[in-house]
Design a protein that fits this description.
Elements (H helix, E strand, L loop, with lengths): L1 E6 L4 H16 L5 E6 L4 H10 L10 E6 L2 E4 L6 H9 L19
Parallel strand pairs: 1-2
Antiparallel strand pairs: 1-3, 3-4
Length: 108
């Protein structure tokens, strides 16, 4: 699993989130690879996308993305360590197969 933070040093939201982010990455399990990309090094995101055949994009700062197996998801919750940790450790949801509508005949 990869956890990606795309940020800018001048961004007030990124600056406010910095302490919570540091606490988060210190407590993450070993299997989570953290990649921090500063806006001046956005070419690193392009390299990541090519290497892993993904399409992680940044639509603003900070952008937090999780790449787990074949799924890319973006964090939109509060920038609090506890909330971010819950999101990171959340297993990807699987689409449940639904049974096709079946009709049954009543026996008289």
């Amino acid at each position: 699993m990869h956890l990606i933070k795309i940020y800018a040093n001048w961004c007030p939201h990124c600056i406010n989130m910095a302490k919570e982010w540091e606490m988060l990455i210190q407590k993450l399990p070993k299997y989570v690879n953290v990649l921090e990309i500063e806006d001046s090094e956005i070419h690193m995101l392009n390299e990541f996308n090519k290497k892993h055949k993904r399409n992680v994009v940044s639509n603003g700062y900070p952008t937090i993305a999780k790449v787990d197996k074949n799924k890319v998801s973006y964090y939109n919750g509060p920038r609090i360590m506890k909330n971010m940790m819950s999101w990171v450790l959340q297993k990807p949801t699987r689409k449940r197969k639904t049974k096709k509508n079946r009709t049954y005949k009543r026996k008289n």
